[in-house]
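Collaborator request log, item 7. Partner lab (contact: R.S.) asked for a structural prediction of Membrane protein to inform their binding assays.
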Amino acid sequence: MLHLRVICPPERTGVVQAELVAEPGATHITVQPGIALAPAGDVVEADVTREAADQVLATLRDLGIDRSGGITLETIDTTLSEAADAAEKAVPGDPADAVVWEELITRTGEESRLTVTFQVFLTIACVLAAIGAITDSPVTVVGAMVLGPEFGALAAVAVGLVLRRRDLIHHGALALAAGFPVAMIITALATIAFDAIGLLPTGSLDQMDQVKFIYTVGPFSLIVALLAGSAGMLALTSARSAILVGVFISVTTVPSAAYTSVALIEQRFDEAWQAALQLVVNVLGIVVAAVAVLLLSPRARAWRGSGKRRVAG
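Returned to partner:
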């Protein structure tokens, strides 16, 4: 379940309380008059099932609570309550399958911004992937896949396309379009340094038997990208976020970007082209699959074109 906290003007408290009491998926409803200071008002709290969260949030927005007060939603790890069990049963569907769109918008918005942290993680991941390629170490390459933060930006682009949110598309596309080139340039400089100190002897890239998948483009490149994008978006929209680690390991965006830099420095232009193509195939495949998953959501249409809302963070 999700814990809902609402700060609202006193003149709206009665309406908010009535809406929550009438909602079958809401329980543990409490009202604390006049305790909120900034913004001033009453505090209304409730526990809400994931299946009912979208409707409750839409109602609160229609009442203008997001403008005159505040709405906070957070995940509850454990609930021991017959009332909570009854609320879960009263709302059709399974909590793990419910898409809470505001939660998804906020999460992808936060994880898609081009920040110093995003750039540092992406750069470290690319350099690590380059080392994995040079040493023919699949373990190192997998570590780079897990470390890469790019899936958040890809997910933001997908959510933005489905909901027609230009801000999400802009943030995600900027993070990818600026983040990868910077990381690749630094990886290229690192490769030159490895060459200069003898850590990249001539012919070492001829022995990449275990990590050739980085630049080998084929039908399975697209298939894996589509599957990873689908699984990743399902993990983001459900209560199964731990699955994202498996998604990261499936995606070869970071390794292919890193190897593009290495191959260019080593004048292996055919391999550089293939690695760059692998990167493009993965990016497009992930976004297309993520969009498809979101469009299959029963409430996707209700959110499309609903207007620009502020993204937290």
